[in-house]
Amino acid sequence: MKRKRLLAAVMAAVMASTLTMGMPMNGYAMDQGTETVASEPEEGNSSEAAVTNPEQDAESVMESATEESASAAEPDAGSESQETKPDAASVAESTEAGGRAEVAPDAQSNTVGTAEENGAASAGTVGAVGSSASYNFEYKLLNDGTVSIIKYTGNGTSVTIPETIYGVKVTKIGDGLFRYCTSLQRITIPNSVTSIGDDAFKGCTSLTQIALPNSVTSIGYSTFCDCSSLTQITIPNSVTSIEEYAFSGCSSLTQITIPDSVTSIGYDAFDGCSSLTQITIPDSVTSIGYDAFYGCKALRQITISNGVKSIGPHTFQGCTSLKQIVIPDSVTSIGLLAFAGCSSLQAVKLSDSVKCIAWGTFQDCASLKQIMIPSSVTSIGDGVFSSCDSLTAIYFYGNAPEHVNGIGTVSSPSFPIRDSLTLYVLKGKSGWTVPIWDRWHTAYFTADTGNMSESRSMYRLYNPNSGEHFYTGSQNERNQLVSAGWRYEGIGWNAPLTGGPIYRLYNPNAGDHHYTGSTKERDDLVKLGWKYEGVAWCTASPATKKPQYRLYNPNCTGAGAHHYTGSTKERDDLVKLGWRYEGIAWYGV
To answer: Same domain, yes or no, for 472 and 444?
Structure first.
């Protein structure tokens, strides 16, 4: 009788060892003669029981089990032998020893191993790859009693993540699970999964489609980075954050919907999504990380809702197809180079709450023609509009910003210093007489009439030594002439930024300047030795009724032979003095 009890104990021990160590059962045949190395538990994750067991051959198992059970089978004196079940603590302890197997959990324990069909027929499709019925996952038990899949050993084109592994719920796709699985084309994720780890699908260059369940709450760091064949994906309403590099390098991604549940978009989240054509940022998002949409060359439309408070540096840099952008009033700061290199950008509406426009924000926006600066702006950084070659008008609705770059020999002023650019200032605002603003053309507009016509002031100067009058739209040139002894006589008229050209010529022999709208007169003077200096300004339509009169002094043999004025009184007075009236030279606004 005692011998029979001992034999029964030995057999029970053998069966228990077989279950714990992941011996193949229920029709799944492991490769014979293959030695599988035990996986080490992740460093720093001692709280999670790593579930892997090396294969042992049956004979060694029997021998070790017999030795262990021989002593275990002897009952204590005065007590009866009884069968026991392992508790969760003993399971965790045993699984820490390592091993490779997805063993079905015992009905009364938390034992979890590798998914190599352990007697659960209903779980026959767990971890199926392609048409294969084999299991290709390794996983471990989490503190909450659920499973995290930590390794994929297959190479199939289609993978289905199981909702449970023999009764234990799968809640996490581990870090780097499918990293660089270049043959993977489709993946199905069950509703049990709440977390997708970092780098989970990084470099899956053949992945074309994936459905994220409503259970997922976060998309980790670099999750779909460089999935270059992925064309579209829908982010479920359960997701609250899109982490850094989540979709970076998804060069075939043409559309993506960001749900109202998302509150933050990490840096470089969509960096290099060169096929993405439009994006809508919902009200729930409060911050957009730097480089978030960097290099999205096909992005034509961006809608930023009224919840975003900050736009990070480089956020939309290099979005070369973007033509217009509206910054909502919720935005208070725009990072450096945020829209740099948006070469097709033509119109920008800034938030009325923006206080600072950082360095190079609109640098290299070669198509930008005009922009309105709200009264809230107090600081404008270096080179904000550098290389914006089409920019002709900047409208300021408030007092002069306290901080701008434009003093002395600064190489990267806040605004380009050129004659074709005019800074329009709302009448009644202060600070614009500070000398720093003399570096740019300035003009005034009135908000009550909506008069923001594109024009610039033309300055009139007089040389008391030669008697010549000179006209320029350049504050720089005006200031240099004043320093040289010329007398500044004020604004002669306002010229439109577009219209018929008025040519400027210079006589090096007499030191005289001449202005004409006639190409024939210009060419004739050039033949006579005059130097053509380019287009000085433009003429408006006669409908403006702002004519500028041209007069000639027949007695003058040197500089100052021609004079131009918009005053009928000055015109008539000069005629009385012997000047010859030659008609209307051009029109102002």
So the answer is: no
| CA–CA distances in Å: residue 371 to residues 326, 340, 466 | 11, 15, 42
Residue 295 identity: G
- Domain of residue 512 covers 457-587
d(CA 256, CA 287): 18
What is the rounded average pLDDT of the residues 27-53? 34
Q: From CA 278, how far away is CA 353, in angstroms rounded? A: 25
Residues 113-150: pLDDT tens digits?
A: 344 433 332 333 333 332 223 458 888 888 998 989 99
Supply the DSSP string of 221-269, one letter for each residue: TTTTTT-TT--EEE--TT--EE-TTTTTT-TT--EEE--TT--EE-TTT
- Whole-number Å distance between alpha carbons of 297 and 287: 22
Name the domain boundary from 452, 483, 503. 452
| Single-letter amino acid code for the residue at 540 | A
Q: Which tokens go with 511? A: 């030191």
Q: Please indicate, yes or no, whether residues 407 and 423 belong to a single structural domain of this protein.
A: yes
- What one-character DSSP code corresponds to residue 85? -
> Would residue 89 count as lying in a domain?
no
End-of-domain residue from the set 452, 468, 487: 452
For the chain, what is the domain count? 2
Q: Which tens digits make up the pLDDT trace of 496-529?
A: 877 788 899 998 888 888 999 998 999 999 999 9
Estimate to the nearest angstrom the gap between the alpha carbon of 392 and the chain centroid.
27
39 vs 145: CA distance, rounded Å: 20
C-alpha closest to that of 139 among 52, 223, 216: 52
Instruction: Annotate 145-163 with DSSP letters as a single string.
Output: S-EEEEEE----SEEE--S
Q: Is position 238 within any domain? A: no
The answer to whether residue 332 is domain-embedded is: yes
Mean pLDDT of the chain, nearest integer: 76
pLDDT in tens, 319-351: 999 988 889 889 988 999 999 999 999 888 888
Query: What CATH number has the domain bearing residue 431?
Result: 3.80.10.10
Q: Is the pLDDT higher at 339 or at 473?
A: 339
CB proximity list for 291: less than 8 A, separation 6 or greater: 267, 268, 271, 312, 313, 314, 315, 317
361, 342 contact by CB (below 8 A): no
